[in-house]
Design a protein that fits this description.
Keywords: Cell inner membrane, Cell membrane, Membrane, Protein transport, Transmembrane, Transmembrane helix, Transport. This protein has 279 residues and is an alpha+beta fold. The chain contains six helices and 13 strands.
């Protein structure tokens, strides 16, 4: 019924139009229908998108050099670069760091710090440690303090050797050869006698001081060193010449507090060498 009505209306319209115009109008409509049918047939035969022969992007493997650089810059313990990495000087204040609590998401944290009186306190970022000395930032194994507009680092003391567990079956005298830890540290004379230093050269220039034990090695271990350690910096100053060997020897004096950066295999370890006041 609808088709009959539509044809009748078209016939009436055709009566009002000149014969040639009506003919060409029907031709255009038929041509448009033919074009659409051809496009439909082409889409069915070759199902391509509007941009042609599109294919998904293939995964590309990184070059070995790029992979090595990426792995070298990744730290699974979250010790990434921080805004205070440019701070190279180590503080000479009579304070000691015993623990840190870093809040990476909030950019805050706190630290357990002992002052000259030896009393440990929990200090938050922004709080005052000593008069004129403020805790600026907390990192994985060190803190940044600010005094007089200058920033300095204070590392965790890792020079104390780990407690030795003695097997009960070995007898009560099994631990007799283990040196007892002293609250005052080793003396300057013991450090000179038990620790040997030698420059390490790479490419014709000095890049560190090689450490080796002397004697029975007890003093060497008590200082927090291991055979094969390389000193690369002392109190934030890098080792670059043989003169630094004499400079380090001159700093081994009673009561000295040295912050030593040690290259241990593929790691960099801070060691705090605190000498007792005894000669």
């Amino acid at each position: 019924m609808l088709r009959t009505v539509t044809i009748e209306r078209l016939s009436r319209v055709g009566q009002w139009l000149p014969r040639d115009v009506y003919f060409w109008a029907k031709a255009l409509i038929l041509a448009a229908i033919a074009i659409q049918l051809a496009r439909l047939a082409w889409a069915i035969a070759t199902p391509l998108g509007p941009v042609g022969d599109w294919r998904p992007a293939q995964a590309r493997a990184m070059a070995p050099a790029a992979q090595a650089a990426l792995i070298a810059g990744f730290d699974p313990f979250g010790r990434g670069a921080s805004p205070d990495d440019a701070v190279t000087s180590v503080t000479d204040l009579d304070i000691a760091l015993f623990g840190v609590r870093e809040n990476i998401s909030a950019g805050t944290g706190s630290a357990i710090i002992a002052g000259p009186d030896g009393i440990q306190k929990s200090i938050g970022v922004g709080e005052e440690i000593l008069p004129g000395v403020r805790l600026s930032a907390v990192a994985f194994d060190y803190i940044v303090i600010e005094r007089g507009g200058r920033k300095e680092k204070l590392f965790l003391d890792q020079s104390t050797p780990a407690e030795v567990v003695v097997d009960a079956a070995a007898g009560p005298n099994a631990a007799s050869d283990v040196p007892a830890a002293s609250s005052g540290g080793i003396s300057a004379a013991e450090a000179r006698a038990g620790i040997a230093l030698a420059p390490r050269s790479e490419g014709g220039r000095v890049t560190g001081l090689a450490l080796s034990p002397q004697g029975d090695g007890k003093i060497f271990a008590a200082a927090g060193f291991r055979p094969g350690d390389i000193v690369t910096a002392i109190n934030g100053r890098r080792i670059t010449s043989p003169a630094d060997l004499a400079a380090l020897s001159g700093q081994i004096i009673p009561g000295a507090r040295l912050s030593i950066t040690v290259e241990r295999g593929a790691e960099t370890v801070p060691v705090a060498l605190n000498l007792s006041g005894n000669p």
